[in-house]
């Protein structure tokens, strides 16, 4: 059985133009704003003004039952105490 060759594109696509980045000052201002915001957030959590979001706790699929089962000898002793 012969395999088919993939068709080659006849026209080459021009590379996509990337959006121009902001000026150097804009990047510095954004980094500074993020740093200040994270510092203020940490202070707010430590002082109790804001609360940190805790991830939701996952529960197990099977919940264990709290059964108190005594071994045989202890169970017999307990029955004897009740009968006396």
How would you characterize this protein structure?
By secondary structure, the chain is mostly helical. It has a domain of 28 residues. Helices cover 43% and strands 0% of the residues. It has 2 helices and no strands. The model has no long low-confidence stretch (mean pLDDT 76).
Q: Give the N-to-C terminal Cα separation.
A: 93 Å
Radius of gyration, in Å, reads 35 Å
What is the typical, i.e. mean, pLDDT? Answer: 76
The biggest beta sheet reads: none
Number of helices: 2
Morphology call: flat
- Give unreliable regions as ranges: none
Strand share of the residues? Answer: under 5%
Beta strand count? 0
Structural class, from helix and strand content? mainly alpha
Portion in helices = 40-55%
What is the N-to-C succession of helices and strands? HH
Quick take:
The chain is mainly α. The protein has helices at 24-47, 72-83.
What are the SSEs and their pairings?
Elements: H1 24-47, H2 72-83
């Amino acid at each position: 059985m012969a395999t088919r060759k993939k068709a080659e594109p006849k026209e080459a696509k021009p590379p996509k133009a990337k959006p121009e980045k902001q000026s150097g000052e804009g990047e510095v201002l954004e980094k500074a704003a993020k740093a200040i915001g994270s510092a203020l957030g940490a202070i707010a959590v430590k002082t109790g003004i804001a609360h940190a979001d805790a991830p939701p706790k996952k529960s197990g699929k099977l919940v264990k039952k709290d059964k108190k089962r005594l071994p045989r000898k202890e169970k017999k002793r307990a029955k004897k105490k009740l009968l006396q």
